TrEMBL record:
This is CobW C-terminal domain-containing protein. Belongs to the SIMIBI class G3E GTPase family. ZNG1 subfamily. It comes from the Eukaryota. Pfam families: cobW, CobW_C. Signal peptide: none annotated. It comes from Dendrobium catenatum.
Length: 513
């Protein structure tokens, strides 16, 4: 009998990874932060670097479409482990979705996968303190509350009441996007956050790249302490679920296109004395209501029309705070582009892998001017399913692509360009191995600065260490002007990133231009 007990204890040690935790309670990290601060980026970083940890992920999205599950790629990851994926959408989980949210938490606790930790990403408009009671009632221990803050835009949103509530009871603040802010902005943000959080730890970051154990309490998890041991149990992601809400709104006669919208209750602004005020940066009224609109289409979108019409409308849309989703472009159908917009300093469409299902586009825009958001969706509807005339336009684009490609090839700072996807030009800046600078750092920075100017739209494809930029020059473009802008931005980017490195003679000629 003693031998059986020893065997059972050994099996429990091997298979029940939470056996050492107090009462077997699962730990949880609650991730909060305003729209566009980088919460989903943090989750993707944790999942990509989780090692042997089995993580459950619950995402609360302020939209009718669960776009964050698409950005996290949870459907594909879960399918590999025979896990189902459903979505928690439409507003604050603790308000409109309290019952289903509790059910999702209970399913995670009861899961046979025996997760090591739960990650909960709140909506950018949710109050995190309302989640605590729900976690406790199902037996989940809240280890850490992490707030992700955009260093560059903190001063613009600091008077929002919802932002103050998100910072009230946090244990850690990730001051993200420090690469987009000046040193004075970062220093001022740290002072503000120290006052508002009562002295919570503030950590600077870029793309939320921080050590795993900084945001997950790994002290009691055997899987983390024995990460180098040979383990036959794979790491598991569970983007846990609620039933998906049906789309509301007209389809405008196109069965492949869905439009939906939603409005959350008014969220008042408050100044230091608790009185309502108006934010001059965003022009927010005293009683502000945030709205979201969603666009879905199975038909590919024209990249040419997207960059000439949609992006212009996005940058000019009054009250737009956030845009994100996945895109399928007519000119590059095999690539699945992740689109992010959170102000002019963050405009990108990056593809890291091909489609694993039927290609489609799904975009969510969040702002406080409902009519302006509707106008933006109308612009996208105009190009949905539209195929530009390929005869003359394609010939011009090919001619422009070859002209631009020759200019890139003559500049030693750039890799040899490619026209294998003509009329797209594939190019990128060379990395600097001797300086420890990867091409992804240089080309990624080049893309963000160029896109932020609003004259040119660069997309990117990532494969391992290779980071390529893509440019489409349509009939309204000027290849000479495009090259001149990219050349000047490249000089600024290289100068900034390489300024702390002593140049090697072998690289000096190629980097000084």
């Amino acid at each position: 009998m003693v031998g059986n007990q020893m065997s059972l204890a050994f099996e429990n040690r091997v298979f029940n990874r939470r056996a050492g935790l107090g009462g077997g309670r699962m730990g949880c990290t609650l991730v909060t932060g305003f729209l566009g601060s980088g919460k989903t980026t943090l989750l993707r970083h944790l999942l990509d670097n989780r090692g042997d940890l089995r993580l459950a992920v619950l995402v609360n999205e302020f939209a009718d479409s669960d776009v964050d599950s698409l950005l996290l790629d949870s459907v594909r990851l879960n399918a590999a482990f025979n896990l189902s994926t459903v979505s928690l959408t439409h507003g604050c989980a603790c308000c409109k979705m309290r019952g289903p949210f509790r059910e999702s938490l209970q399913r995670i606790v009861d899961s046979k996968h025996n997760f090591d930790c739960l990650l909960v990403e709140t909506s950018g408009l949710a109050e995190p303190d309302k989640f605590v009671a729900e976690l406790e009632q199902v037996g989940i221990n809240l280890d850490l509350t992490v707030a992700v803050v955009d260093a560059e835009s903190l001063e613009k949103i600091i008077k929002l009441d919802i932002v103050k509530k998100q910072l009230e009871h946090v244990d850690l603040v990730l001051l993200n996007k420090c690469d987009l802010a000046t040193l004075s902005q970062v220093a001022d943000a740290e002072d503000i956050l120290e006052r508002m959080t009562g002295g919570a730890k503030v950590v600077r970051s870029q793309f939320c790249k921080v050590p795993l154990d900084l945001v997950i309490d790994c002290s009691k998890i055997d899987a983390f302490n024995a990460a180098k041991e040979d383990c036959t149990v794979p790491p598991v992601l569970s983007h846990e679920p609620l039933s998906k809400m049906a789309f509301r709104g007209a389809t405008h006669g196109n069965p492949s296109v869905n439009i939906s919208s939603s409005i959350v209750d008014s969220l008042p602004l408050a100044d230091g004395d608790g009185e309502t005020s108006k934010s001059p940066q965003y022009g927010l009224p005293q009683d502000v209501s945030f709205s979201s609109v969603t666009f879905e289409s199975e038909a590919p979108l024209s990249l040419s029309l997207f960059q000439s019409k949609v992006l212009t409308s996005v940058s000019n849309t009054i009250g737009l705070l956030r845009g994100k989703g996945i895109l399928c472009f007519l000119e590059d159908r095999k690539s699945r582009f992740v689109f992010q917009w959170s102000g002019l300093k963050k405009v990108e469409a990056i593809s890291a892998r091909p489609w694993d299902g039927a290609p489609k586009s799904c975009l969510v825009f969040i702002g406080h001017d409902k009519s302006a958001l509707d106008d933006l969706i109308a612009k996208i509807l105009q190009i949905a399913g539209t195929i530009p005339k390929l005869s003359t336009n394609n010939h011009i684009s090919q001619e422009y692509a070859r002209s631009f490609s020759m200019k890139v090839a003559a500049d030693g700072r750039f890799k040899d360009p490619s026209l294998q996807k003509e009329p797209l030009v594939i190019f990128g800046l060379k990395g600097s191995p001797l300086r420890g600078i990867k091409e992804a750092h240089l080309s990624g920075a080049l893309m963000r600065v160029v896109n932020g100017k609003g004259n040119i739209f660069l997309t990117a494809t990532v494969s391992g260490e290779e980071y390529n930029l893509q440019l489409l020059l349509d009939e309204g473009s000027d290849p000479d002007e495009a090259w001149n802008e990219i050349r000047l931005v490249a000089s600024a980017v290289i100068s900034k990133i390489c300024k702390n490195f002593c140049p090697c003679r072998s690289e000096l000629a190629s980097h000084v231009h």
